[in-house]
Specification:
The longest helix has 16 residues. The strands form 2 sheets. Strands 4-3-5-6 form a 4-stranded mixed sheet. A two-stranded antiparallel ribbon has the order 1-2. Helices cover 42% and strands 13% of the residues. The chain is built from 8 helices and 6 strands, in the order βββααβαααααββα. By secondary structure, it is α+β, with helices and mostly antiparallel strands. It comes from Amphibacillus xylanus (strain ATCC 51415 / DSM 6626 / JCM 7361 / LMG 17667 / NBRC 15112 / Ep01).
């Protein structure tokens, strides 16, 4: 389980996932810095963060190998949140090499009003596009996504999404690049 670790400088959290939860990193898994992005697929602000902040982080820190980036889908907004959080777990487990690309596509598609985004048909089409086994990917995930969200909410003190942690320290304003950069070693 996730546990809070007290530090003399600031309150840090142990960002380890719930036991046996699949971990997928974007970037060098041996990087000195770890960034955890907690989000809801149906959250407008999460998509905005991915569009406005993430490209800078990716080019300056992830691609050069300074930061390993991982995500945790939460369930806060609506039914699509739950469907996509379940999908997220299974893609991490069964299609880890494609996870980051699929994650980014779902986030980008969330802003497209012409799609039936988040619906069962949207998910089916997405899986077909990536040539993934629908029965496998749409099977019951290992963890009930709402319970998983509650575990992270409780352990990490998540009040809103997007929430960002760097090396166990919560970023007060995830849209503030100066604050993000100050927490990267």
């Amino acid at each position: 389980m996730i546990a809070v670790i007290q530090s003399n400088k600031s309150s840090k959290v142990n960002m380890e996932p719930v036991e046996e939860q699949s971990l997928i990193y974007h970037g060098d898994p041996e990087a000195d810095n770890e960034m955890l992005f907690l989000f809801d697929y149906a959250c407008y602000w999460c998509a905005l963060w991915m569009n406005d902040i993430y490209p800078t982080i990716e080019s300056k820190y992830i691609d050069p190998g300074e930061v390993k980036f991982r995500t945790q889908a939460m369930v806060y907004v609506n039914d699509a949140s739950l469907r996509l959080a379940d999908l997220d777990q299974n893609i991490k487990k069964y299609a880890e090499d494609q996870y980051h690309q699929i994650f980014q596509e779902i986030i980008a598609d969330s802003q497209n009003e012409d799609l039936e985004w988040g619906s069962d048909q949207y998910i089916s089409d997405l899986l077909n596009n990536y040539q993934l086994d629908q029965d496998l990917i749409l099977s019951e995930p290992d963890f009930y996504s709402i319970k998983l969200s509650r575990a992270y909410t409780s352990a990490l003190g998540v009040e809103v999404v997007p929430t960002l942690y760097i090396n166990g320290v919560k970023v007060e304003d995830p849209f503030n690049l100066d604050e993000i950069e100050a927490l990267i070693k």
